[in-house]
Design a protein that fits this description.
- This protein has about 70 residues and is an alpha+beta fold.
- It has 2 helices and 3 strands.
- The chain has helices at about 20-45, 50-65, and strands at about 1-5, 10, 15.
- A hairpin with a 4-residue loop joins strand 1 (about 1-5) and strand 2 (about 10).
- Helix 1 (about 20-45) runs antiparallel to helix 2 (about 50-65).
Length: about 70
């Protein structure tokens, strides 16, 4: 990867501008994925699969701090 003078990163032929709000997008993607993991954990708890529930709750916490997942 190299950075050009106009604040654009070039990686494998793709250009990524630092002017875009990439942090906000990443946080939203992480939040969506954390919610998905939380839902998987809830289903696993209902099915009595505690190991799977713990695994997905930990993953959810590592992605985004959702209320109720602590």
């Amino acid at each position: 990867a190299y950075r050009s003078a106009n604040a654009t990163w070039h990686v494998l032929g793709y250009a990524f501008s630092t002017n875009e709000n990439l942090t906000g997008r990443c946080l939203q993607v992480n939040k969506d994925e954390a919610e998905r993991c939380r839902d998987i954990a809830a289903r696993a708890l209902q099915q009595g699969n505690h190991d799977k529930a713990i695994k997905f709750l930990k993953k959810s916490l590592s992605l985004y701090p959702l209320p109720g997942v602590e």
